[in-house]
Amino acid sequence: MPSSTKVKINDEPQINPKGPIITEMNEDTITKNAILVNSQHTNMRLLFLLQKVVQHLHDFAIETRLTTEEWEVAIQFLTDTGKMCSDIRQEYVLLSDILGLSVLVDAISHPKPPNATIGTLLGPFHTHDAEEKHQGDSISSEGRGEPLLIEGLLTEPDGTPIPDASIDLWHCDNKGMYDTQYANRDHPDMRGIIKTKEDGSFVIKCSRPVPYPIPHDGPVGKLLQKINRHPYRPSHIHFIIEKPGYDRLITALYAKGDPYETSDVVFGVKDSLLYTLDKLGTEKAKKYDMNPDDWYLKWHFKIISEEEAKKLRYEKNKEALTRAAANLVLNSDGVPEHCPLD
């Protein structure tokens, strides 16, 4: 592998301008030359990632016979996407979501055994200002939708309770809007954090979620319209479940029978995450100061340890490695990287 040395210009270290020798720059050589120039370092994971991104991008251009005009449109689209990003809106996350990339990356990074709760995408509306709630509190302010009580249980796959875990949940209101989409937002709403009890249980009030469109007034929305896709997500509730020593679970529960259950714009719905609501009933209504006709959801979440997750990720990545190039190894994090030649 070519190595670069540093020289001093104006008393500041600079990368040697010579670098590797590249000649005859044409359609047949540009890919290997670009990979060669990007290989002047010893970060083996980064080396592998850059090799692959250059190879796949160049293969895409070659296979599609990409035109200059099409590339300019793509550059403008990416520029517009960046301009739509802010502290409360991430257009690039939306782009990743509608391409199915977010769900794929989560599945690769956080594989689950069959007896654990499966993950799904985070989505663009999570915030870090959610307030911690007490058992039986509501995360929803008045008038935000039909009341819903959630009784949850968190255990390991074998049923061992997990106490003092953080359950971060959020969802849209009855207008299909998240609190961050309102211009006058001055505090978190429709979101909260609750800790599990000694037996792994938790109780929280919220409201019944409804279907809603992702923000589609930007470049991602224009792309969806261009390719004849709708912008809607089925009714769902987001969860992030965390406790030291356990693999963080990012997931969501989806309403079974929702009009958009089988056409979620961001590919988040998974069969094992579908729920059906019941009526609360007299006994629970009295206990939690609600009405018998309010909605009720009971769910058992199962998470695995960080050690088990790392082992499973290593095994799956090792299987994938057999289908990749021979000069790759798994690093200490269990992800493939380039294997330097002796």
UniProtKB/TrEMBL annotation:
Instruction: Output the Pfam families linked to this UniProt entry.
Output: Dioxygenase_C, Dioxygenase_N
From which domain of life does this come? Eukaryota
* Cofactors required: Fe(3+)
**Where in this chain does the record put each Intradiol ring-cleavage dioxygenases domain?**
150-178
A biological process (GO) of this protein is: catechol-containing compound metabolic process
Q: Does the keyword Iron apply?
A: yes
Q: Which UniProt keywords apply?
A: Dioxygenase, Iron, Metal-binding, Oxidoreductase
- Single GO term (MF): ferric iron binding
What the entry lists under Gene3D superfamilies is as follows: Aromatic compound dioxygenase (2.60.130.10)
Q: Which family does it belong to?
A: Belongs to the intradiol ring-cleavage dioxygenase family.
Report what the protein is called. Answer: Dioxygenase family protein
Give the source species.
Answer: Candida parapsilosis
